[in-house]
Amino acid sequence: MSYQFNNFYELIVYHAKKRKNKTALFVDNEKISYGELLSKADRLAGFLAEKGVKEGDRVALFLRNSPEFIYTVFAASKLGAILVPVNTFLKEEELSYILEDSGSSVLVASAIHDKVVNYSQASRLCRFILWEGDVLVEGEQHHYFEEAFRSDKTTEHIQRGLEETAVIIYTSGTTGKPKGAMLSNKNILSNADSGRRTINVTAKDRGIVFLPMFHSFTFSIGVILPLYVGASIVIIKSLQPFSNIFKQTLLKQVTIFFGIPDVYNALAKAKLPWYFMWFNRIRAFISGAAALQPKTLEAMANKFKRATLLEGYGLSEASPAVCMNTFKKQKAGSVGTALYSYEMKIVDENMKELLHGEIGDIIVKGDNVMQGYWKRPEATAETIVNGWLLTGDMGYMDEEGFLFIVDRKKDLIISKGINIYPREIEEVIDAFAGVKASAVVGVFDEKHGEIPVVYIELEEGTESLDEAGLKKYLREQLANYKVPKQIHVIDELPKNATGKVLKRVLKEKLKQSKEA
Questions:
Q1: Any residues with CB less than 8 A from the CB of 504 and at least 6 apart, and which?
Q2: Hey, what's the torsion of the CAs at 228, 220, 160, 205, to 10 degrees?
Q3: Cβ neighbour number for residue 386 with a 10 Å cutoff
Q4: Local structure of 393: helix, strand or coil
Q5: What is the DSSP string of 255-268?
Q6: What angle do CA 349, 416, 485 make, to 5 degrees?
Q7: What is the DSSP string of 404-432?
Q8: Are the C-beta atoms of 455 and 488 separated by less than 8 Å?
Q9: CA dihedral 419, 420, 421, 425 (to 10 degrees)
Q10: In angstroms, rounded to a whole number, what is the distance separating the alpha carbons of residues 250 and 281?
C-alpha cells in the first residue's frame, strides 16, 4: 500500500496549502480554517522546541476534546515527538503510572482536570505542564496555550518516516496494568485511508466528535480520517447537555456521526423533534468500541431512513479499526469484512486456520498492526506472531468473509468442559422487556468448574425485574447449562470511557460478596 503522507504534519501542510480558508474545525460559534490550524500548530511547535522538546520525546495529552488537542497532534509531529493520549477518566495514581511508564517529559492538560493533575506525580515526572483553559497554577513549570501561541520561534520539520512511532496508546487495562501500544505513522494513516475507502469520506463531509479524543477509535477515525481527506470536524467539548450534540449536528450540517452503542441505544429511543428528523444531513452513523444490540440496529434503521448505521470492530493494537460493514452490504450481528488491505483469520490454538462457521481466535494482519508494546518485548512476542496480531477475541467468519464476534477469550466460561460464550447469553437477556443492558461473568463452582452469573441494568422507568418471567424466557431460549445461576440487578453496569463493560469489576464484586 502506498501513502501520500509520511506523518501527520505533512498531512496538515498539504491541506493548508490546498484549502487554506476552508473550515477545518467548528467549535461552538468559532470556525478554524486549515490555514489557522497550521499556523497555531507551527507556533506551538516553536514554543515546545524552545522548552526543549525534541525528536522521540513523549508528550502526554490529558485533554478534553478541544482544538488544542489537535494543535498538539500536529505540533508534536513537526518536532518528531511521540504523542501519549491519556484517558481523562483516570485518577491521579493511574495518570502517574502512565506518565512514568511512558517516560513523558511534557504533560498537556485541561483546566477541568487540574485536581487530578495536581494530586498526581506530574510535576515530578514532567519537565513542564502546558494548560488548556482557565486555571491559575503558579510556578516556572506551568505554561498556557495563550503564551505558546505568542511564540515567534521557527523550527524545522523533523522528517519522521512512516515506520517511526507516532503515538503510544495505553490499553484500557481490563486485566493488570495498562500497556502502551506503539503505533507508527503508517499504522494510523493506513487506518485513515482504509476508513476513507469504506465510508467514502470526502472533503465535502463533516464529522462530529463528542467521544473522547484520547480513545484510539476517535483519534484515528474521528480526528485523523476527516483531516486526512480535507473534511471538517465539529468538536463537542462536553457531553453535557447531551441535547447540544443534536443541536450542533443540525446547525453544522454534520454528515458523519461517530458514536458508541450507548449513544445509539439512547438515540434509537429518543423523541427527536420533527425538524431534526427532517433537516439533518447525516448519511452515516459509525459505531465502534463495543457490540450493538440487534434491537438497536433495527430501531435505528426504522428511525433514520436516509442514513446507514455501520458497525465495525477494532482494538487499540490495530490502530484500531480492523473491519466494518459497508454501504453495499451489511449483516445483522456481524461487524463486517476486513478493511482495505487488511487480512483476518479464525484459527485454533495451534494457529491453524479453521473452516467457515467454526469458532476460534481472531487474528489480524496488515499495516494497522502495532509495532509492539512499549518496553514490553515479552508481551509483544505473545501478541504478535509471524506478523499476525492475536486479538484475544473469539469469533467465526462466514463464506463471504463477514466476521461474527462471539466473545473475549478471557471472558469465556467453561462449565463441565463445555464452552459458554457470555455474549450469546447477553443478547438473549437484552431482548427481555425492561432490560437496558446485561453482563454475564463466570464464577468458580466446585461441581461445574464455572457457572454463569448475570448482572442486569434496567431500562429507565422500569422499577423491578420480572425474575421468574426472565428465567422462564431463558429456559425457552437457551440450553440449561447456559442459563445464569444467579441474577443480580444493578443500578448501572461499570464501564470504561467508551462504553465497554468492565467485567473484572463485576467479578471483584462477586468475590467480595462471597467473602462477606
A1: 174, 175
A2: 10
A3: 7
A4: strand
A5: -EEEE-HHHHHHHH
A6: 115
A7: EEEEEGGG-EEETTEEE-HHHHHHHHHTS
A8: yes
A9: 160
A10: 8
Question: What is the phi/psi pair of residue 81, to 5°?
Answer: -85, 165
For position 410, what pLDDT does the model report? 84
The residue ranges of DSSP E strands in 57-127, in sequence order, are: 58-62, 82-85, 106-110
Query: Which residue type, as a one-letter code, is found at position 353?
Result: E
Domains of the chain: 31-183 (3.40.50.980), 412-515 (3.30.300.30)
Mean pLDDT by 10 residues, the chain (516 residues): 95 98 97 98 98 98 98 98 95 94 98 96 97 87 96 93 98 73 98 96 98 94 98 94 92 96 87 93 90 85 94 95 95 93 96 97 98 97 97 95 90 85 91 94 85 94 94 92 93 85 87 73
Q: In 3-state terms, what secondary structure has residue 353?
A: strand
The predicted pLDDT at position 176 comes to: 63
Distance CA 205, CA 283 (A): 10
Angstrom CA distances, 505 to 432, 498, 508, stand at 24, 16, 5
- Residues 258, 260, 263, 264, CA torsion sign: positive
**Rounded distance between C-alpha atoms, residue 421 and residue 424, angstroms:** 6
In a 13 Å sphere around the CA of 415, the CA atoms on its Cβ side amount to: 21
pLDDT for position 172? 65
Q: What predicted TM-score, i.e. pTM, was given to this entire model?
A: 0.88
Q: Match 493533575 to its residue by C-alpha cell.
A: 117
